[in-house]
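Both lines are quoted verbatim for reference:

——
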Amino acid sequence: MHSVRPSARPSARFRSRLRLPVIGAALVLLGLSYAVLVPNGAAGADGPQSQQIEEGRKLFAVGCASCHGLHAQGGTNGGGAFTAPSLIGVGAAAVDFQVSTGRMPAQQPGAQIPQKTPVYSQDEIAALAAYVASLAPGPAIPPASSYDVSKATQEEVTRGGLLFRTNCTACHNFAGSGGALPNGKYAPSLMATTPRNIYQAMLTGPQQMPVFSDQVMRPEDKRDIIAYIVALQQSKDPGGLGLGRLGPVSEGLWGWIIGIGLLVAVAVWIGSRVPTVRREPDEPSH
Protein backbone atom coordinates (compact mmCIF):
# COMPACT_ATOMS: atom_id res chain seq x y z
CA MET A 1 0.00 0.00 0.00
CA HIS A 2 1.16 3.48 -0.72
CA SER A 3 1.12 5.90 2.19
CA VAL A 4 -0.91 9.01 1.55
CA ARG A 5 0.82 12.24 2.52
CA PRO A 6 -1.34 14.75 4.31
CA SER A 7 -2.08 17.67 2.10
CA ALA A 8 -0.40 21.02 2.92
CA ARG A 9 -3.43 22.93 1.77
CA PRO A 10 -5.43 22.64 5.04
CA SER A 11 -2.45 24.01 7.01
CA ALA A 12 -2.12 26.97 4.66
CA ARG A 13 -5.85 27.69 4.87
CA PHE A 14 -5.61 27.49 8.67
CA ARG A 15 -2.77 30.00 8.79
CA SER A 16 -4.64 32.28 6.42
CA ARG A 17 -7.71 32.20 8.66
CA LEU A 18 -5.60 32.77 11.79
CA ARG A 19 -3.78 35.78 10.36
CA LEU A 20 -6.73 38.18 10.46
CA PRO A 21 -7.62 37.60 14.16
CA VAL A 22 -3.94 38.02 15.13
CA ILE A 23 -3.66 41.31 13.25
CA GLY A 24 -6.92 42.51 14.80
CA ALA A 25 -5.73 41.62 18.29
CA ALA A 26 -2.44 43.44 17.69
CA LEU A 27 -4.27 46.57 16.58
CA VAL A 28 -6.48 46.45 19.66
CA LEU A 29 -3.43 46.10 21.92
CA LEU A 30 -1.73 49.02 20.14
CA GLY A 31 -4.79 51.21 20.64
CA LEU A 32 -5.01 50.31 24.33
CA SER A 33 -1.30 51.00 24.82
CA TYR A 34 -1.67 54.43 23.20
CA ALA A 35 -4.67 55.26 25.40
CA VAL A 36 -2.70 54.33 28.53
CA LEU A 37 0.62 55.99 27.67
CA VAL A 38 -0.61 59.23 26.10
CA PRO A 39 -1.96 61.84 28.62
CA ASN A 40 -5.69 62.38 28.59
CA GLY A 41 -5.24 66.08 27.84
CA ALA A 42 -2.99 65.53 24.82
CA ALA A 43 -4.19 67.63 21.92
CA GLY A 44 -4.78 66.25 18.49
CA ALA A 45 -3.06 67.34 15.33
CA ASP A 46 -5.47 70.23 14.96
CA GLY A 47 -5.99 70.91 18.68
CA PRO A 48 -5.32 74.16 20.56
CA GLN A 49 -1.82 73.06 21.59
CA SER A 50 -0.86 72.35 17.99
CA GLN A 51 -2.19 75.72 16.87
CA GLN A 52 -0.25 77.48 19.63
CA ILE A 53 2.97 75.72 18.61
CA GLU A 54 2.44 76.71 14.98
CA GLU A 55 1.84 80.33 16.00
CA GLY A 56 5.02 80.22 18.07
CA ARG A 57 6.96 78.81 15.13
CA LYS A 58 5.88 81.73 12.95
CA LEU A 59 6.81 84.27 15.64
CA PHE A 60 10.16 82.56 16.14
CA ALA A 61 10.94 82.66 12.41
CA VAL A 62 10.32 86.41 12.32
CA GLY A 63 11.81 87.59 15.62
CA CYS A 64 14.33 84.98 16.77
CA ALA A 65 15.65 82.94 13.85
CA SER A 66 18.07 85.64 12.68
CA CYS A 67 20.24 84.91 15.74
CA HIS A 68 19.19 81.47 17.00
CA GLY A 69 18.74 79.81 13.60
CA LEU A 70 15.58 78.87 11.79
CA HIS A 71 15.30 75.62 13.77
CA ALA A 72 16.64 77.06 17.06
CA GLN A 73 19.93 75.24 16.53
CA GLY A 74 22.03 78.30 17.40
CA GLY A 75 23.65 80.84 15.14
CA THR A 76 27.03 82.05 13.90
CA ASN A 77 28.14 85.21 12.15
CA GLY A 78 29.10 83.40 8.97
CA GLY A 79 32.74 82.98 9.92
CA GLY A 80 32.04 80.26 12.46
CA ALA A 81 32.01 82.58 15.47
CA PHE A 82 29.28 81.87 18.01
CA THR A 83 26.53 84.51 18.20
CA ALA A 84 23.52 82.87 19.88
CA PRO A 85 23.06 79.59 21.76
CA SER A 86 20.93 76.67 20.70
CA LEU A 87 17.46 76.68 22.25
CA ILE A 88 16.86 72.97 21.79
CA GLY A 89 16.20 71.57 25.26
CA VAL A 90 16.12 74.88 27.17
CA GLY A 91 12.41 74.41 27.89
CA ALA A 92 9.44 76.74 28.10
CA ALA A 93 10.59 78.27 31.41
CA ALA A 94 13.73 79.74 29.85
CA VAL A 95 11.75 81.31 27.00
CA ASP A 96 9.12 82.72 29.35
CA PHE A 97 11.80 84.27 31.58
CA GLN A 98 13.90 85.80 28.80
CA VAL A 99 11.00 87.17 26.73
CA SER A 100 8.74 88.32 29.58
CA THR A 101 11.60 90.36 31.08
CA GLY A 102 12.36 91.94 27.71
CA ARG A 103 15.88 90.53 27.55
CA MET A 104 14.90 88.76 24.36
CA PRO A 105 14.85 89.67 21.59
CA ALA A 106 18.14 91.44 22.33
CA GLN A 107 18.75 94.89 20.90
CA GLN A 108 22.40 94.07 20.31
CA PRO A 109 24.90 91.43 21.47
CA GLY A 110 27.03 92.22 24.48
CA ALA A 111 28.56 90.92 27.69
CA GLN A 112 25.19 91.25 29.40
CA ILE A 113 21.70 91.47 27.92
CA PRO A 114 19.81 94.07 29.99
CA GLN A 115 16.18 93.92 31.03
CA LYS A 116 13.76 96.15 29.13
CA THR A 117 10.07 96.51 28.30
CA PRO A 118 8.73 93.25 26.79
CA VAL A 119 8.18 93.24 23.03
CA TYR A 120 5.61 90.44 22.90
CA SER A 121 2.22 90.04 24.55
CA GLN A 122 1.49 87.29 27.07
CA ASP A 123 -0.23 85.16 24.42
CA GLU A 124 2.72 85.54 22.06
CA ILE A 125 5.17 84.67 24.82
CA ALA A 126 3.15 81.54 25.61
CA ALA A 127 3.21 80.57 21.91
CA LEU A 128 6.97 81.04 21.65
CA ALA A 129 7.48 79.00 24.82
CA ALA A 130 5.23 76.22 23.50
CA TYR A 131 7.16 76.06 20.22
CA VAL A 132 10.59 75.84 21.89
CA ALA A 133 9.27 73.28 24.37
CA SER A 134 8.06 71.14 21.46
CA LEU A 135 11.62 70.83 20.09
CA ALA A 136 13.02 68.85 23.05
CA PRO A 137 12.27 68.24 26.75
CA GLY A 138 13.29 71.01 29.14
CA PRO A 139 12.16 72.86 32.29
CA ALA A 140 8.46 73.69 32.03
CA ILE A 141 6.85 76.91 33.22
CA PRO A 142 6.23 76.30 36.94
CA PRO A 143 2.67 76.34 38.28
CA ALA A 144 1.62 79.28 40.44
CA SER A 145 1.66 77.10 43.55
CA SER A 146 5.44 76.71 43.19
CA TYR A 147 6.14 80.41 43.78
CA ASP A 148 3.06 81.59 45.69
CA VAL A 149 4.42 82.99 48.96
CA SER A 150 1.36 84.97 50.01
CA LYS A 151 0.90 82.67 53.01
CA ALA A 152 4.56 82.21 53.89
CA THR A 153 5.28 82.07 57.62
CA GLN A 154 7.99 84.03 59.40
CA GLU A 155 9.88 80.78 59.87
CA GLU A 156 9.89 80.15 56.12
CA VAL A 157 11.04 83.73 55.43
CA THR A 158 13.88 83.34 57.94
CA ARG A 159 14.90 80.02 56.44
CA GLY A 160 14.78 81.58 52.98
CA GLY A 161 17.11 84.32 54.21
CA LEU A 162 19.65 81.72 55.35
CA LEU A 163 19.47 79.97 51.97
CA PHE A 164 19.74 83.29 50.12
CA ARG A 165 22.81 84.40 52.06
CA THR A 166 24.43 81.01 51.43
CA ASN A 167 23.73 80.69 47.71
CA CYS A 168 22.93 84.12 46.26
CA THR A 169 24.64 87.01 48.08
CA ALA A 170 28.01 86.46 46.38
CA CYS A 171 26.48 87.93 43.22
CA HIS A 172 23.17 89.59 44.12
CA ASN A 173 24.29 91.36 47.33
CA PHE A 174 22.99 90.60 50.82
CA ALA A 175 19.89 92.73 50.16
CA GLY A 176 19.23 91.58 46.57
CA SER A 177 20.44 94.87 45.11
CA GLY A 178 22.73 93.24 42.55
CA GLY A 179 26.43 93.60 42.00
CA ALA A 180 29.28 93.73 39.50
CA LEU A 181 30.87 90.64 37.95
CA PRO A 182 34.04 90.22 35.86
CA ASN A 183 34.30 91.11 32.16
CA GLY A 184 31.57 93.75 32.13
CA LYS A 185 28.88 91.44 33.49
CA TYR A 186 26.67 91.97 36.51
CA ALA A 187 24.05 90.34 38.69
CA PRO A 188 20.81 92.35 38.35
CA SER A 189 18.84 93.76 41.23
CA LEU A 190 15.97 91.60 42.46
CA MET A 191 13.93 94.45 43.87
CA ALA A 192 11.50 94.54 40.91
CA THR A 193 11.59 90.87 39.88
CA THR A 194 8.39 88.84 40.14
CA PRO A 195 8.24 85.55 42.10
CA ARG A 196 7.50 83.69 38.87
CA ASN A 197 10.64 84.98 37.18
CA ILE A 198 12.77 84.36 40.27
CA TYR A 199 11.68 80.71 40.26
CA GLN A 200 12.28 80.41 36.50
CA ALA A 201 15.72 81.97 36.83
CA MET A 202 16.68 79.37 39.44
CA LEU A 203 15.35 76.60 37.18
CA THR A 204 17.12 77.71 34.00
CA GLY A 205 20.22 79.68 35.05
CA PRO A 206 20.10 82.67 32.67
CA GLN A 207 23.39 84.23 31.55
CA GLN A 208 25.96 83.89 34.38
CA MET A 209 23.58 82.44 36.95
CA PRO A 210 24.04 78.75 37.88
CA VAL A 211 21.15 76.31 37.50
CA PHE A 212 19.37 75.37 40.73
CA SER A 213 17.41 72.37 39.47
CA ASP A 214 15.20 70.30 41.75
CA GLN A 215 18.12 67.92 42.18
CA VAL A 216 20.32 70.78 43.45
CA MET A 217 17.72 72.70 45.45
CA ARG A 218 14.32 71.41 46.51
CA PRO A 219 11.19 73.26 45.32
CA GLU A 220 10.29 74.21 48.89
CA ASP A 221 13.74 75.76 49.33
CA LYS A 222 13.23 77.85 46.21
CA ARG A 223 9.87 78.98 47.53
CA ASP A 224 11.42 80.02 50.86
CA ILE A 225 14.08 82.07 49.04
CA ILE A 226 11.34 83.80 47.06
CA ALA A 227 9.48 84.54 50.31
CA TYR A 228 12.63 86.20 51.68
CA ILE A 229 13.16 88.28 48.51
CA VAL A 230 9.52 89.42 48.56
CA ALA A 231 10.01 90.42 52.21
CA LEU A 232 13.05 92.47 51.16
CA GLN A 233 11.03 94.14 48.40
CA GLN A 234 8.34 95.13 50.87
CA SER A 235 10.63 96.22 53.71
CA LYS A 236 11.38 99.85 54.50
CA ASP A 237 14.71 101.35 55.50
CA PRO A 238 14.60 102.08 59.25
CA GLY A 239 17.32 104.72 58.86
CA GLY A 240 15.31 106.62 56.29
CA LEU A 241 17.96 106.48 53.57
CA GLY A 242 18.87 103.08 52.12
CA LEU A 243 21.84 104.29 50.01
CA GLY A 244 20.98 101.62 47.48
CA ARG A 245 21.41 98.92 50.13
CA LEU A 246 24.92 98.39 48.83
CA GLY A 247 26.53 98.17 52.25
CA PRO A 248 30.04 99.54 52.95
CA VAL A 249 30.52 100.78 49.38
CA SER A 250 27.82 103.44 49.38
CA GLU A 251 28.24 104.11 53.10
CA GLY A 252 31.98 104.73 52.67
CA LEU A 253 31.38 106.92 49.63
CA TRP A 254 28.85 108.93 51.64
CA GLY A 255 31.38 109.31 54.43
CA TRP A 256 34.15 110.54 52.15
CA ILE A 257 32.09 112.92 50.03
CA ILE A 258 29.86 114.35 52.76
CA GLY A 259 31.91 113.81 55.92
CA ILE A 260 35.36 114.75 54.61
CA GLY A 261 33.80 117.46 52.45
CA LEU A 262 32.23 119.08 55.50
CA LEU A 263 35.52 118.92 57.42
CA VAL A 264 37.35 120.63 54.56
CA ALA A 265 34.67 123.31 54.37
CA VAL A 266 34.88 123.95 58.13
CA ALA A 267 38.69 124.15 57.98
CA VAL A 268 38.51 126.71 55.18
CA TRP A 269 35.94 128.74 57.09
CA ILE A 270 38.06 128.75 60.24
CA GLY A 271 41.09 129.80 58.24
CA SER A 272 39.19 132.70 56.74
CA ARG A 273 38.20 133.96 60.22
CA VAL A 274 41.77 134.22 61.62
CA PRO A 275 43.15 137.82 61.22
CA THR A 276 46.49 138.17 59.47
CA VAL A 277 49.27 140.36 61.02
CA ARG A 278 51.15 142.59 58.60
CA ARG A 279 54.55 144.10 59.47
CA GLU A 280 55.32 147.72 58.54
CA PRO A 281 58.24 148.20 56.11
CA ASP A 282 60.29 150.48 58.45
CA GLU A 283 59.64 148.40 61.54
CA PRO A 284 62.94 147.07 62.85
CA SER A 285 63.20 143.38 63.01
CA HIS A 286 64.47 141.70 66.16
